[in-house]
Design a protein that fits this description.
The protein folds into four domains: about 10-110; about 130-225; about 230-385, Histidine kinase-like ATPase, C-terminal domain (Heat Shock Protein 90), CATH 3.30.565; about 385-500, no CATH class. The chain contains 14 helices and eight strands. Helices cover about 55% and strands about 10% of the residues. It has helices at about 10-40, 45-115, 120-125, 135-190, 195-220, 235-240, 265-280, 315-325, 345-355, 390-395, 430-435, 450-460, 470-475, 495-500; strands at about 230-235, 250-255, 260, 290-295, 300-305, 360-365, 370-375, 380. The strands form two sheets. Strands 2-4-5-7-6 form a five-stranded mixed sheet. It has a three-stranded antiparallel sheet with strand order 1-3-8. By secondary structure, the protein is α+β, with helices and mostly antiparallel strands. Its EC number is 2.7.13.3. This is histidine kinase.
Length: about 500
């Protein structure tokens, strides 16, 4: 026979509790009967009445207690049911809250950053289920409030970034105009070595201002100022990066892979390398050298630069990697730069993310920092001229004569070369000198008639250093011999720069 649980049908609470509440009256009735049997006959009537009244009172009290017990049991069952329902609702609400924090809110932020409005995000993302309508309404209200606040901050940041980009573009326009005027002055005063050297030094400083303006524009989410259409040899790209730093004379350019960089990646690569080289020269002793090499690997090109500074601690390396990782496709938050901003790594991180560069920091054999920048295979092609930049410099035809002093190659050993013998009337000596790279430098010394003229002739013979403006680099990308740069110096620029540094 199956057992019936207490409090369940058919016995129910009444059948289970009936023996319990009847037990006290029954016991009292038995006691009354015993007392009546022991009491004399004259007093039995009083004992009987007292026993009956007591038994009735106890029975009523026991019945009331049983009723209250049944009521309490019913209340307990109702409370347990309600508690289970509330616990289930609470679990569902907690699950929805966790889902909002881990899934809904990140997805909403992603759509908001892509340009969607708050209403579109709420329509596409919010899918609350198994919760009460009140909680769903509160859920949407909280999410709407957060999205509106984030959208306002995004609009404010975008406005600030656009303002910075506009300011950077204005500075770039001024720098470009100043560079054109400086080139005109170089054409005009190209035969005066002192004036020409001063103009080149000012031109170099102008290029540094242009790099700073480009950095601000990049941090604002824009591209660097100049866009290249043709493929540029990697050798020229490295020289272009060297030309945009102050201590370019401290950079030793070693072996370079004979590959070309596609036009869309030239300016970002030049700018990123310039920022890394600037850090390498800025945070290393001034008497040390910075070594720059480029090696072709299976996945692209690895450009390595090593300095002899104090190196990076684990904390400094973590901070540098964090600065690289903080960049985003929409630009870096300007508040993250701090009161004394260091733009270099932030700019490199932005360019690396946009152009798929990979930058890593390692310990250098010279005790400093070794930075490796990986250029992806998608930005690399065969060098435009077979044999690389040096072959191109050796095979270009002689330039057309435009008047002015004779070039060094046209001066005989009996007649000393004039001071500006390697320049033309338009003040671009580097272009003509690079085409004459086949002439050994050792022939320059016997051509000088005096000690002063010989010294000036030797200093004017090599091609211009990286500190010169990129006019010839942009107009004629002709490359140059490894033996001619960067340790040889030109027209007083290096001497004055070294005195200032």
């Amino acid at each position: 026979m199956p057992m019936v649980r207490a409090g369940s049908s058919p016995g129910g609470p009444e059948s289970a509790s009936t023996p319990i509440w009847l037990l006290p009256p029954v016991l009292l009735a038995v006691c009354t009967a015993v007392a009546v049997s022991l009491t004399p006959s004259t007093a039995r009537a009083q004992v009987v009445w007292i026993g009956v009244l007591a038994t009735a009172a106890v029975a009523v009290a026991a019945w009331q207690a049983a009723c209250r017990a049944r009521t309490l049991d019913e209340l307990r069952r109702q409370y347990a049911g309600r508690e289970a329902i509330l616990h289930r609702h609470l679990s569902e609400q907690e699950a929805e809250t966790v889902r909002m924090a881990k899934e809904t809110l990140p997805a909403a932020m992603a759509q908001l950053q892509k340009g969607s409005t708050t209403e579109e995000v709420l329509h596409n993302v919010v899918h609350v289920s198994r919760v009460s309508p009140e909680f769903e309404a509160a859920h949407k209200a909280v999410l709407r409030y957060v999205l509106e606040a984030v959208e306002a901050e995004e609009d404010l940041r975008d406005s600030a970034q656009r303002a910075f980009v506009n300011i950077a573009r204005r500075v770039q326009a001024i720098v470009h105009q100043q560079a054109q005027e400086l080139r005109e002055l170089e054409d005009k005063h190209g035969q005066d070595p002192e004036v020409f050297g001063d103009l080149l030094r000012v031109d170099h400083r102008t290029a540094l201002v242009g790099r700073l303006a480009d950095s601000i524009a990049v941090l604002g989410g824009a591209r660097p100022g100049r866009q290249w259409q043709q493929t540029i040899p990697l050798f020229n790209v490295l020289r272009g990066a060297m030309s945009r730093i102050t201590d370019y004379q401290r950079v030793d350019l070693h072996s370079v892979a004979e590959v070309g960089i596609l036009g869309r990646g030239v300016e970002p690569l030049i700018h990123a390398l310039a920022e890394l080289l600037d850090n390498a020269t800025r945070y290393s002793p001034p008497q040390t050298r910075v070594h720059l090499t480029a090696t072709e690997i299976q996945t692209g090109v690895a450009i390595e630069m090593e300095d002899a500074g104090i190196g990076l601690t684990d904390e400094a390396r973590t901070r540098a990697e964090r600065a690289l990782a903080q960049s985003s496709p929409t630009g870096i938050d300007l508040d993250d730069l701090g009161e004394s901003p260091r733009l270099g790594l932030a700019v490199v991180g932005r360019l690396a993310r946009t152009n798929d560069f990979k930058v890593s920091f390692r310990a250098s054999a010279y005790g400093g920092v070794r930075v490796v920048l990986m250029v992806p295979q998608e930005l690399i092609t065969a060098t435009p001229v077979p044999g690389g930049a040096m072959a191109k410099a050796a095979t270009l035809p002689p330039p057309r004569r435009r008047g002015g002093p004779l070039r060094r190659s046209e001066v005989t050993t009996e007649e000393p070369a004039p001071v500006a013998s390697s320049r033309t009337a338009n003040g671009l000596p580097q272009r003509r000198r690079r085409t004459r790279a086949v002439i050994p430098p050792m022939r320059q010394k016997p051509e000088a008639a005096t000690t002063t003229e010989s010294k000036t002739s030797v200093s004017a013979a090599p091609p211009p250093q990286a500190g010169m403006w990129l006019a010839a680099f942009q107009e004629g990308i002709s490359g140059e011999s490894r033996a001619e740069s960067p340790d040889l110096r030109s027209d007083g620029l290096s001497d004055k720069e070294s005195e200032r540094n």
